[in-house]
Automatic annotation (TrEMBL):
Disulphides: 42-47
Name the UniProt record assigns to this protein: NAD(P)/FAD-dependent oxidoreductase
Residues bound to FAD: 51, 114, 314
Residue numbers binding NAD(+): 181-188, 268
Names of the cofactor(s): FAD
Protein family membership: Belongs to the class-I pyridine nucleotide-disulfide oxidoreductase family.
Database matches in Pfam families: Pyr_redox_2, Pyr_redox_dim
Limits of the Pyridine nucleotide-disulphide oxidoreductase dimerisation domain: 362-468
Cofactor note: Binds 1 FAD per subunit.
Source organism per UniProt: Agromyces albus
Keyword Nucleotide-binding: yes
Domain (FAD/NAD(P)-binding): residue spans on this chain: 6-323
One term of GO molecular function: dihydrolipoyl dehydrogenase (NADH) activity
GO process terms (BP): 2-oxoglutarate metabolic process
Length: 499
């Protein structure tokens, strides 16, 4: 079977859904191809279930930090109730709601594995064994996402290791969990499982959260240890095996061992392009896809044509975050429609049809203990990019709003300011409930708001946002105070950057 449509989208996660939504809103005929659950990784196995697993124990810890509320706590965390709430938020791994939504916008769903078969062509291998060939008049957008990397450690693949999907869809919490890795997935799952009562051991080759400011990973290491987890840094797993008692034994480079009931591998991601058919258009299977700021795939060989293939979300390796992928998807759906309908394309920086923020204003929140939130450049990254920077550091615990929020509040905040531009280019916040602070910093960076103007953005008292005033005081007005350039170190390679 073969049919023509305006746009084919491969991948029905939030990214693919947003491409379909924007293209369909412009009146284009859209077919979305998905072989698993609509909603994709984020809805079913990543963001949504992981955050629900984390939330209950975080609330309990927060209540214990407030006298009066602490005395009202008379029981322990109900793990079964946490898992039931997780099941509710993933709709028991059914996608009926997403199917209904897709039909509601007038897009069509094709269940099956989609792969390219030359320019403009997509073959859908349906569950019943039949095949459908879709020919896109205007565009094919691929948004297949990414998969976890399982490193070639002796015996690891045969030891039935958990990946992130296993960790977020668990039906029973193991007594002991070993985690290989030091990135976001590793620390969030360590936080979640320690909160659920497991004996957690984190095995990281270098520090934690290596892509963030160093103080973030240091705070999380202390926080995990405060939850009873063991954090072992600078260690290298060299062998993993399951013994006769069905325990997992991890042997480290120094000869020591860690024994657990399960081992979670959290050492980075790889693109789902191995079976995507990109070799039929001259691209390398298994590779990340290079795109321009409108998400058009670059590097197509001569004769394959241009302007029809888009790669959106994780697969382009610009920012492996759902919110950033959805941002790319909105621009992509709009630019596909503009090009198809002969409308003007706004591809200038910060234009309607580009994802400019991918380069300088990517917000990220790690729901660890404590939370870590950042956007833009770290001081180290800014200096490596050749920028002249000034840095302001503030103890969040000294902010009145934070002290009222929780007794003994501990946290840290940093602004990175470009001295030539006089604007914020990076911000990092570490502490309880700092996730909500990052949007203000994102707006300041995207809007290129001068530090002088920020003095007039008055934070309400007594809120944690008062940290903005303290950060500006630490910087001083550029015309009045000379703040030293920060001394930075080269970043250590982490499990995620290595992958």
């Amino acid at each position: 079977m073969e049919r023509e449509v305006d746009v084919v989208v491969i991948g029905g996660g939030p990214v693919g859904e947003n491409v379909a939504d924007r293209a369909r809103a412009a009146g284009l005929e859209v077919v979305l191809v998905e072989h698993e659950l609509l909603g994709g990784e984020c809805t079913n196995w990543a963001c949504v279930p992981s955050k629900t697993l984390l939330r209950s124990s975080a609330v309990l810890r927060a209540a214990k930090r407030v006298p009066g509320a602490a005395e009202a706590i008379t029981g322990e965390l109900d793990v079964a109730a946490v898992l039931r709430r997780r099941d509710y938020w993933v709709s028991d791994w059914k996608d009926d709601g997403d199917v209904e939504w897709l039909a509601g916008i007038g897009a069509e769903l094709e269940r099956g594995h989609g792969r390219l078969d030359g320019p403009h062509r997509v073959i859908v291998e349906r569950p019943d064994g039949t095949e459908l060939t879709l020919v896109a008049r205007h565009a094919v957008a691929v948004a297949p996402g990414s998969d976890p990397v399982v490193p070639p450690i002796d015996g690891l693949a045969d030891s039935r290791p958990w990946t992130s999907r296993d960790a977020t869809s668990v039906k029973h919490v193991p007594e002991r969990l070993a985690i290989i890795g030091g990135g976001v997935v590793a620390v969030e799952m360590a936080t979640a499982y320690a909160g659920l009562g497991a004996d957690v051991t984190v095995l990281a080759r270098s520090g934690l959260l290596g892509a963030m400011e160093p103080f973030a990973g240091e705070a999380v290491a202390r926080g995990l240890e405060g939850l009873g987890a063991s954090v072992r840094l600078g260690v290298e797993p060299v062998k993993v095996e399951r013994n006769d008692a069905d325990e997992v034994v991890v042997t480290l480079g120094d000869g020591s061992t860690v024994t657990a009931d399960e081992v979670l591998v959290a050492t980075g991601r790889k693109p789902r392009t191995e079976a995507l058919g990109i070799d039929t258009v001259g691209l390398e299977p298994g590779a990340w896809l290079d795109v321009d700021d409108t998400m058009l795939v670059q590097g197509l060989p001569d004769g394959e044509g241009a302007g029809w293939l888009y790669a959106v979300g994780d697969v382009n390796h610009r920012a492996l975050l759902t919110h950033q992928g959805k941002y790319q998807a909105r621009a992509t759906g709009d630019v596909i429609a503009a090009r198809a309908l002969g409308r003007p394309v706004d591809a200038a920086p910060w234009g309607a049809h580009v994802a400019t923020a991918d380069h300088s204003a990517v917000p990220n929140v790690v729901f660890s203990e404590p939370e870590c939130a950042s956007v833009g450049l770290t001081a180290r990254a800014a200096e490596r990019a050749g920028r002249s920077v000034r840095v302001a550091d503030v103890d969040l615990g000294a902010v009145s709003g934070a002290g009222i929020l929780a007794d003994g509040y501990e946290g840290h905040a940093r602004l990175v300011v470009d001295t030539e531009l006089g604007t914020v280019v990076g911000a990092t916040f570490v502490g309880q409930d700092v996730a909500e602070l990052v949007q203000a910093a994102t707006i300041a960076i995207v809007g290129e708001v001068s530090v002088d103007r920020l003095w007039h953005a008055v934070p309400a008292f007594p809120t944690v946002s008062e940290v903005w005033l303290r950060l500006l005081e630490a910087l001083g007005r550029p015309s009045a105070v000379d703040v030293k350039t920060v001394e930075t170190e080269e970043p250590a390679e982490t499990e995620e950057t290595a992958a």
